[in-house]
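Teaching note: in complex prediction, the entire set of molecules is handled at once rather than each chain in isolation. The prompt given to students was simply: 'Predict the structure of this complex.' The entities are:
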Amino acid sequence: MLVNQFLFLGAILFCIGVYGVLARRNGVLVLMSIELILNSVNINLVAFGTMWHATDASNLSGQVFALFVIAIAAAEVGVGLAIVLMLYRNRRSIDIDDVDLMRG
Amino acid sequence: MTPVFASEVLVAQTIAFGLIAAAMIFAAVRVVTCRNLVHAALWLVTVLAGMAAQYILLAAEFVAVTQVLVYIGAIVVLFLFGIMLTRSQMGLSDRLDNPRQAKLVAGGVAVALLAVLGYALWDGFEDRRFGEISVQTTTQVSDAIFSTYLVPFEVVSVLLLAALIGAIVIARRD
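The expected output is the structure of the full assembly:
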């Protein structure tokens, strides 16, 4: 297997996630797109980890970093959804276009 | 071009990769274009499950299991809770997307980014192969976490605790 086939899969998913963040208006859907982005980075990390593991069996940095990213992603979704919930409670809508208090 | 050995080609794995990758890309596109919130969350499950399968192809068993437990088990459920608690419209909705011009810009940004990334990746790795893939066992992963990466691990624990408290404080009804 080529290393690049996994890296390209990650790149494609990353770009789909970026499109989602920019094109979606619903707060929950924006968070879902961010999950796509974080996941696509993880596949890169694991692919590089496997690549280095093949040359040096004591090197597991790729997997460990992927696990850290998963933990951070879980924290991010928890706080993000709490913010969306608060938004809904205050404005009865989770359209992020409506959150324009800081617009000049 | 380095010579390719028969043992490095791994036909079955490559076919499995192709099928799963195609399913994942289709599902990911549905996540960002679907007009039904709940369906988008369920398509996200497909992407995440495919990702776990790819980790298994990469012989990273512990990350694959963690992916299923944390993402599909916890994060998607959290999303479904978020959808229900905000009483979003359950059926089809036209209010999920930005206007057409914003979508065009987003598409342009995504395609440009893909072009840059694709060029950089091909320039950097070309047809480099994995070599002899051996299973990275859970034992080895835990050894690495609890020796080399002990301090970052503790920091992540504190961060999770902080995020937990923060989420409770933000979402509390008072």
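Point out the following to students. The radius of gyration of chain B is 21 Å. Chain B touches chain A through 89 residues (CB under 8 Å).
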